[in-house]
Amino acid sequence: MQRSKKQTLAIKSIAVASVLAIAGCDREAGRAVDASAFGTSTENNYLVQTGQRSYAISLAKRFAEEVPSTINFAFDSYQLDQNARAALRVQADWIKQFPEVTFKVYGHTDLVGSAAYNKKLGLRRAQAAVNYLISQGISRDRLAAVVSYGKTQPLIVTQGRERKNRRTVTEVSGFLKRHPTVLNGKYAEIIFRDYVASAVPATELTGITVSGTGSSE
């Protein structure tokens, strides 16, 4: 059966429109944000379920973006001031959303003093932060490690007193191995709860010095 010119043009138009429509669908539902190939959602889900790609990575990014993960200290001190305690309470509220997740707290100092002394001081600062998180209802076994970098990783390189360097940093470190949702690979339950919790208004951080830009003491 021969087609008229009008029919042929109509078929060509439909074909072109279909190609453009497919080209316009540049994001497959469920795929990783930075991917571009069709089928990435299946690959991403498989890698997460088999442990080859940890959901902890994206949680770590969220924690760093949504929570004041760094607190600061007075010179030669590991006492928590009002701002530090307020920031740790916000951390604790976020941590409670994910009972499967573990955290590490890293202690730091400025460059004043010996390496040995500062390593001990950094550890005391990390322990002070951990103890406060425990007082807010976080289980000790979820705080996977307390680590001190002492003065080896300054934010600002100066031999003088620098408050920004006197800090602890809380980070997501992984998952509790014995937790049932982790043992059974039920990461979807964690992710679903993540979406539900995201609808809850964020805790107000009024009065908290997130970056620790206060003057040195």
SSE topology:
Layout lengths: L4 H20 L15 H10 L5 H12 L3 E3 L9 H14 L5 E8 L6 H21 L7 E8 L16 E9 L4 H4 L3 H11 L20
Parallel strand pairs: 2-3
Antiparallel strand pairs: 1-4, 2-4
Written account of the structure:
It is found in: Cell outer membrane. This is OmpA family protein. The chain is of the alpha+beta class and 217 residues long. The chain has a domain of 144 residues: 60s Ribosomal Protein L30, Chain: A, CATH 3.30.1330. The chain has 7 helices and 4 strands, in the order αααβαβαββαα. A 4-stranded mixed sheet has the order 1-4-2-3. The radius of gyration is 25 Å and the shape is elongated.
The CATH homologous superfamily of the domain at 54-197 corresponds to OmpA-like domain
* Mean model confidence by pLDDT: 75
Oligomer: single chain
Radius of gyration: 25 Å
Helical fraction equals 40-55%
Instruction: Give the tally of β-strands.
Output: 4
Content of β-strand: 5-15%
Main sheet overview:
4 strands, mixed
Main location: membrane
Organism: Halocynthiibacter halioticoli
Domain OmpA-like: 60-176
Pfam families: OmpA (PF00691)
Outline of the structure:
Its main location: membrane. With 217 residues, the protein is of the alpha+beta class.
Key features of this structure:
membrane; 7 helices; disordered C terminus; OmpA family protein; Bact_OuterMem_StrucFunc; cell outer membrane; 217 residues; four-stranded mixed sheet; elongated; 60s Ribosomal Protein L30, Chain: A
